[in-house]
Specification:
The complex is a heterodimer of chains A (about 500) and B (about 375). By secondary structure, chain A is of the alpha+beta class. Chain A folds into three domains: about 270 residues, Alpha-Beta Plaits, CATH 3.30.70; about 55 residues, 5' to 3' exonuclease, C-terminal subdomain (DNA polymerase, domain 1); about 150 residues, DNA polymerase, Y-family, little finger domain (Dna Ligase, domain 1, 2-Layer Sandwich), CATH 3.30.1490.100. In chain A, about 40% of the residues lie in helices and about 20% in strands. Chain A is built from 19 helices and 16 strands. In chain A, the strands form four sheets. Chain A has a five-stranded mixed sheet with strand order 5-6-1-7-8. Chain B has about 375 residues and is of the alpha+beta class. Chain B folds into three domains: about 110 residues, DNA Polymerase III, Chain A, domain 2; about 110 residues, DNA Polymerase III, Chain A, domain 2 (Roll); about 110 residues, DNA Polymerase III, subunit A, domain 2 (DNA Polymerase III, Chain A, domain 2). In chain B, the strands form four sheets. Chain B has a nine-stranded antiparallel sheet with strand order 14-11-12-13-26-25-24-18-22. In chain B, strands 6-2-3-4-17-16-15-10 form an eight-stranded antiparallel sheet. In chain B, strand 11 and strand 12 form a beta hairpin. Chain B is elongated, with a radius of gyration of 25 Å. The N and C termini of chain B lie far apart (about 70 Å). In chain B, about 40% of the residues are buried. The chains are: A alpha+beta (about 500), B alpha+beta (about 375). Chains A and B meet through strand 11, helix 13, strand 14 and helix 19 of A and strand 27 of B.
Chain lengths: ~500, ~375
């Protein structure tokens, strides 16, 4: 099959030589449909997908029966229950949705190589140059829907919009929901949309709508006929874009960015279940995110030397701070050291934290040769082996099969009493017995499923992980380490300081 | 304030302090020079600071009236450089400075001295003497290893250490390390250990080079250090330690020795490194009894190989280094031959001159590149 659409870009205002055929495929009530698909007894019932019921969760998706009660995604769960007391709330399962979404993309790619995932439940497919034409496009759409039905059953339905560009395809897919197909052939735009309100246009939000209404523009047709010069004066360069949109023109290409596009950064963010004033809690979240990001870097064989940390406070003010380091890394201990420093430097006591994030950028492929470091060489090999073993366990048993001991409990006192523990400490969870890990070819010490904390650490692990390090004054390596830190001398002492500062409520401004 | 001075003298004085003025400053007054005139001593002094480092220099002038002002550093320097040979006379009226020389007249606006930051005081009485040439040599031999990585702040300077019978300076960025020590009697100075930012050290080298002079006086304080070089004083903040125990990472049990001509290996590395990877700059050394092979092989780029004579006292061995680090080390060693003392392919190599100067010890450590499996 031929794929040409992604490289094609029409000249604005010029007659296009090729007429593109773009599909926008939008899954209907995606999360809710996936849940119904997994538990067919929910079929036909009002179902919402949200977070844990006890938390301040919002509705991520509502099934069509639930929508009849006025429940919409984005609404708080409390409000949903008020509107429909017998609504069934299901906790979201992101892993399942991602899996389904990737499978859907695979189906689309059987029809064209130019597939742009637009969100977890939407994708653009450029059919230009394939055997799909304006004559048979409806048949192709039906074929795609049939494949989805064959694979996932009747609960997962899609609405397909077909248009000569992404804008029109996207606007069409929303017209016949659920389970619909809407085709807008070239030249039909005016007839279908001229009388619709400007707010129905994809990309025109509440603010732009008000601004346009104030200029006397309320329908798409009026916008198309409005003098461009005036639009430009009011909206700047966006004025021209608005005009083009109102004329049904859009030249953005369908970009299959998941393929062959170099990854620029990798990061994770987490919104806390409740705002926190406790830096230790934020640290804990940050540590978990660092662990996830480092795991992803290693999995994709990338290394990074720019590490950034992001915080959002209770008042929704956000800060992002980054630091470039001397060498490239794919290890959480380095990412954690840098991001934790940034957290301590830019968080002010009293600021309530809502979201924590960490991001690694300036990525390079893992190099054949790697520069060794004078001050970490002693436990470098052991540490790489440990990371390899952890990755192997996670590959075999899933991401949650093993985690850091620090992340298991929220009890800080445990750590203040057990600070004589060197990082990295990992804890195996949920595997039942130690044999499972060994069976997977991954073995870390003989710890079984015990946690490696304080005295319970297996000796082999402790001796290999706590390489002897002294500082310049000749102190032995028995310096109490704050949890989760590397045992190189600088880090040890610097973090010791930081820890003490935090304890005394100070800051290192 | 009013004084006149030979243009050349004023220009020289400005050049001694100008490097400290950073182009981008948060405080406008930091872009200015503090200019004071002392009527009794018949001297003027110029001071520049970036808050981390302050340089003050004094020079003789015909002072008619004492006083002080701060004036824009770059503009003042440009004016003085462009003036003719006639003497320059400077007078201040309020915040306005007028500069006259021959038939040229300039008026520039300054900032009152009160806004100039208060600077740390150093007393020359507390200072000890260091041989100027030795200090320059010591700084030049180690400062190339100072780390630029802000995540390890204690490595962002050179560690100057005094023991009863040696004085040494050490710098490292974790990938390589250089330490230079000289024998002598330093008992009185023991405990004056400090981590000095490289900017202060390189400025000291520059002033020593420009001023000549044999002796440098150094006053070490808890948080700052002062270098007195002729009429110029460099005052710098010290970095917070502790500096890592570098002695611990210098391998003691490296049992293999490679002896090779310094120029030979330098030129060969420079040649083969043209094809090395732009990120790792890897060059592989294959050591044989009498032959050293340098190879670079970079996918999608090409291969380079060069052979040179050497003396190696062990069985064949392969080790990889960052060519830039290797060249840096070779450049800063003395003598015609260099000696590599090696243990394993993943351990630090101790590189030193095969013909060390008496009473001095200059050792460099180089961490290899490891081949990822």
């Amino acid at each position: 099959m031929l794929a040409r659409g992604s490289h094609y870009r029409a000249q604005p205002g010029k007659e296009t030589r090729y007429q593109r055929v773009i599909f926008h495929i939008d899954m209907d009530a995606f999360f809710a449909s996936v849940e119904v698909m997994c538990r067919p007894k929910l079929r036909g019932k009002p179902v919402i997908v949200s977070g844990k019921p006890t938390t301040r969760s919002v509705v991520a998706a509502a099934s069509y029966p639930a929508r009849k009660y006025g429940i919409r995604s984005g609404m708080s769960s409390v409000e949903a229950f008020r509107r429909c007391p017998h609504v069934i709330a299901v906790e979201g399962k992101p892993g399942q949705y991602i899996h389904t979404s990737l499978e859907l993309l695979r189906i689309y790619k059987e029809h064209s190589t130019v597939v742009e995932p637009y969100s977890i439940d939407e994708a653009f497919v450029d059919m230009t140059g394939t055997d799909c034409t304006w004559e048979n496009c409806e048949e192709v759409a039906r074929a795609i829907k049939a494949k989805i039905r064959d694979q996932f059953g009747p609960d997962l339905t899609a609405s397909v919009g077909i248009g000569p560009n992404k804008l029109l395809a996207k606007m069409c897919s929303g017209m016949n929901k659920p389970d619909g197909i809407t085709v807008l052939r070239p030249g039909e735009f005016g007839r279908m949309f001229n009388d619709k309100a400007v707010s129905e246009m994809w990309g025109i939000g509440a603010k732009t709508e008000v601004a346009l209404n104030l200029m006397g523009v309320s329908t798409i047709g009026e916008l198309a006929n409005f003098p461009v010069a005036m639009l430009r004066r009011r909206f700047g360069i966006m004025g021209e874009v608005l005009h083009m949109m109102a004329c049904g023109q859009d030249d953005t290409p369908v970009t299959p960015y998941y393929e062959g596009m170099p990854i620029k950064s990798m990061g994770h963010e987490h919104t806390l279940s409740a705002d926190t004033w406790d830096i230790m809690e934020a640290e804990q979240v940050l540590l978990r995110l660092c662990d996830q990001v480092a795991r992803r870097l290693r999995k994709k064989q990338y290394m990074s030397n720019v590490i950034s940390m992001r915080l959002r406070f209770a008042d929704f003010e956000s800060i992002g701070r980054q630091k470039k380091i001397d060498c490239y890394t794919d290890e959480e201990r380095t990412i954690w050291r840098v991001s934790r420093d940034l957290l301590h430097r830019y968080w002010r006591p009293g600021q309530a934290i809502r979201l924590v994030g960490v991001n690694c950028s300036n990525l390079i492929r893992v190099q054949e040769w790697q520069q060794m470091d004078l001050f970490v060489q002693r436990n470098e090999d052991e540490h790489r082996k440990l990371l390899g073993a952890i990755d192997a366990i996670r590959d075999k048993f899933g991401e949650h099969a093993i985690t850091r001991a620090r992340l298991v409990s929220h009890d800080r006192r445990m750590w203040s009493n057990n600070r004589r523990v060197a990082e990295p400490r990992f804890m195996r969870m949920g595997l039942g017995s130690g044999n499972a890990a060994r069976g997977g070819g991954a073995r870390i010490g003989d710890g079984g499923s015990r946690s490696w904390m304080g005295g319970s650490a297996p000796d082999g692990a402790r001796t290999s992980l706590m390489a002897g390090w002294n500082d310049a004054k000749g102190n032995a390596d028995d310096v109490a380490l704050p949890p989760g830190l590397s045992s190189s001398p600088f880090e040890m002492l610097r973090h010791q300081d930081a820890e003490d500062r935090v304890r005394s409520g100070g800051d290192d401004s | 304030m009013k004084f006149s001075i030979a243009r050349g003298d004023l220009d020289k004085a400005i050049q001694r302090v100008l490097a400290v003025v950073s182009p981008k400053t948060t405080l406008p007054v930091l872009a200015n020079l503090l200019l004071t005139a002392d009527e009794k001593a018949k001297t003027i002094s110029l001071t520049a600071t970036d808050l981390d480092m302050t340089v003050t220099t004094a020079t003789a002038a015909e002072v008619e009236a004492g006083g002080g002002i701060t004036l824009p550093a770059k503009r003042f320097a440009e004016i003085v450089r462009a003036l003719g040979d006639a003497d320059v006379s400077v007078s201040v009226d309020g915040e306005e400075i007028s500069i006259r020389s021959g038939k040229s007249n300039f008026r520039i606006v300054g900032i009152p001295t009160e806004e100039f930051p208060t600077l740390p005081k150093s007393d020359m009485a507390d200072a000890f003497d260091v041989d100027a040439e030795l200090l320059t040599r010591m700084i030049e031999k180690v400062s190339f290893c100072v780390s630029k990585d802000e995540t390890r702040p204690s490595l962002n300077g050179a560690y100057w250490e005094f023991k009863a019978d040696t004085m040494s300076m050490t710098a490292t960025d974790g990938h390589r390390l250089a330490t230079f020590s000289v024998a002598g009697k330093f008992k009185k100075l023991a405990g004056n250990d400090m981590i000095v930012p490289p900017k202060a050290l390189s400025h000291a080298v520059r002033i020593i080079g420009a001023e000549g002079g044999d002796g440098v006086k150094v006053a070490a304080h808890q948080n700052h250090v002062a270098f007195f070089i002729e009429g110029t004083t460099i005052n710098s903040r010290l970095l917070e330690g502790p500096f890592p125990n570098y002695q611990q990472v210098i391998p003691k049990d490296n049992d293999k020795t490679l002896l090779v001509g310094r120029d030979d290996i330098t030129n060969a590395v420079r040649r083969v490194a043209v094809l090395s990877d732009t990120l790792t700059h890897q060059v592989k050394l294959t050591l044989g009894k009498k032959k050293l092979d340098l190879t670079v092989s970079t996918p999608d780029v090409g291969e380079a190989k060069e052979e040179l004579p050497c003396k190696f006292d062990s069985d064949k061995m392969e080790v990889g280094y960052n060519a830039n680090y290797l060249l840096d080390v070779l450049k800063h060693l003395d003598g015609d031959n260099v000696q590599f003392s090696l243990g394993t392919a993943v351990g630090a190599a101790v590189v030193s001159s095969a013909e060390p100067a008496e009473g001095e010890e200059h050792t460099c450590l180089l961490m290899p590149l490891r081949l990822n499996k």
